[in-house]
Amino acid sequence: MMIGIFDSGVGGLTVVRELQKELPEYDLIYFGDTARTPYGNKSKETIIKYALEDADFLIARGAHVLVVACNTVSALGIDALRKRYPDIPIFEVITPAVKKAIELSNNKRIGIIGTRATIGSGIYEKKIAEEGRFSVISKACPLFVPFIEEGWHKSAELKRIARRYLDGLKNENPDVLILGCTHYPIIKDIIQVKIGRRTRLVDSALSIAQEIKKLLFSDKGLDNKLSKNKELKIYLSDKTPHSINIVNKILGNNVNIYEDSDNF
């Protein structure tokens, strides 16, 4: 049995990378829905439909733990996933990132960037409000994911777009900025420059990997069910030169990538 991870595209591989660091022995299976990315501009109904299909795909191939490496699905589809699979541990990326941001913030001003769907859901504001009184400044950055998926994550155009997105947020003086999309760590150097060095970035990929490690350490019954052969399987619904290039940049070369376009 494996740990299954899915995302709307290749951004969720940042979670895979952190899981390999935190749990190097464990077998992982990843599905990136590159044929239908991005999810962030879709309706809630469509997002839930895609999320259930992604989860079904992984469960059918041996996943016994599910990691929703997509903020959009974490915001809008997590209840539907847990209803379909009540006996499967399902992790979402939002709660660990919120916990980390609250831990790091000194001035109680927290910034959030994400897709339109994630920001529009208000889920971060809700979860932060449950932890105390904080000022939350959110900004949708819908062009980041398409640029990353196209392999344009170092382009001058993206740097100009980042400045336009982040200038106003920077003026609000948050001391912590949550990267509310698992694609965003790929461009965190650009984001850091544009938001300023005094603002600390919270990477949801690292936060969720650490949460999963804690669970497996405390739940030996679950841990013993998971295979530990250092195996990684990556499936994409549309395998393109751009997506292969990004996979290699995130995880290194010599990664086996499979395409499954029949189910999506």
Outline the biggest β-sheet.
6 strands, parallel
Q: For this entry, what is the oligomeric state of its chains?
A: single chain
Mean pLDDT: 93
What is the element string, with H for helices and E for strands?
A: EHEHEHHEHEHHEHHEHEHHEHE
Proportion in β-strands: 15-25%
Number of helices: 13
- Overall outline: globular
Distance between the termini: 24 Å
Strand order of the largest sheet: 4-3-1-2-9-10
Unreliable residue stretches:
none
Give the second-level CATH assignment, the architecture of the largest domain: 3-Layer(aba) Sandwich
CATH topology of the largest domain: Rossmann fold
Name of the top-level CATH class of the largest domain: Alpha Beta
Relevant terms:
10 strands; Rossmann fold; 2 domains; globular; six-stranded parallel beta sheet; 19% strand; 13 helices; 264 residues; alpha/beta; four-stranded parallel beta sheet
Report on the architecture of this protein:
This protein is α/β, with parallel strands linked by helices. It has two domains: 145 residues, Rossmann fold; 111 residues, Rossmann fold. Helices cover 47% and strands 19% of the residues. Strand 7, helix 10 and strand 8 form a beta-alpha-beta unit. Helix 2 crosses helix 4, helix 5 packs across helix 7 and helix 9 crosses helix 10. The longest helix has 17 residues. The mean pLDDT is 93.
Short description:
This protein is of the alpha/beta class and 264 residues long. It contains 13 helices and ten strands.
